[in-house]
From TrEMBL:
The keyword Acetylation does not apply. One of its GO terms (molecular function) is hydrolase activity, acting on acid anhydrides, in phosphorus-containing anhydrides. The keyword Disulfide bond does not apply. It comes from the Bacteria. Its cofactor is Mg(2+); Mn(2+). Keywords: Hydrolase, Magnesium, Manganese, Metal-binding. InterPro entries: NUDIX_hydrolase-like_dom_sf (IPR015797), NUDIX_hydrolase_dom (IPR000086), NUDT19 (IPR039121). Residues 6-147 form the Nudix hydrolase domain. This is 8-oxo-dGTP pyrophosphatase MutT (NUDIX family).
Length: 198
């Protein structure tokens, strides 16, 4: 594998629980300003100095950032995090941040959303989140869309955690109106995007 490009780094937690209709994830809608304005995302944010430890690798710093940001944004503590994926944004965009996605089982307790960062939140099945995006009710950015699409394969939280046995690395390329990764392309001509496997 190539050496990762030097970029600012963030960590994101895909919180899982098993609900009445199977696997559910926690998604939250960002305010209409700032990063991912108006979009539904998983909790997370950039690595800060408090997250860095001497001699630690990027993924470990991202893990600490993901845990801290989840606590700050939705008031939930998380335990063991399983690496799911790494997303490197395309060249040529103004703010490029590589983001590590982690899976974690939700702790007991109610969501306590930070008003400045979370407009609303929902525990929802991946299928229903994707349906709302397809209907134009929600905005999902490509990493969130792809993550939800992949999680549809699992019936509950246990299966999803057991199935994350190998991290996937996505380096985004833009060709015209298409996002491309390893064997995937995501059309961006219209919202919602459509996924095609090449």
């Amino acid at each position: 594998m190539d050496v990762p490009e030097e970029l600012p780094v963030a960590g994101t937690v895909v919180l899982l629980r098993t609900g009445e209709h199977g696997l559910e994830v926690l998604l939250m809608r960002r305010p209409e300003h700032g990063s991912f304005a108006g979009a539904w995302v998983f909790p997370g944010g950039r690595i800060e100095e408090i997250d860095r430890m001497p001699g630690a690798g990027e993924v470990d710093d991202a893990r600490r950032a993901a845990i801290r940001e989840t606590s700050e944004e939705v008031g939930l503590d998380v335990g063991e995090l399983v690496v799911l994926s790494s997303w490197t944004p395309p060249e040529g965009i103004p703010r490029r941040i590589r983001t590590w996605f982690f899976l974690a089982r939700s702790s007991a307790g109610e969501v306590r959303a930070a008003a400045a960062e979370v407009v609303e939140h929902a525990w929802i099945t991946p299928d229903e989140a994707l349906r709302r995006h397809a209907a134009g009710e929600w905005i999902l950015f490509p990493p969130t869309w792809v993550t939800l699409h992949d999680l549809r394969a699992f019936r509950d939280a246990d299966a999803a955690l057991a199935g994350a046995d190998q991290a996937r690395f996505y380096v985004t390329r833009i060709e015209g109106t298409t996002f491309r990764w390893e064997g995937l392309r995501l059309e961006t001509q219209t919202l919602p995007w459509t996924l095609a496997v090449e």
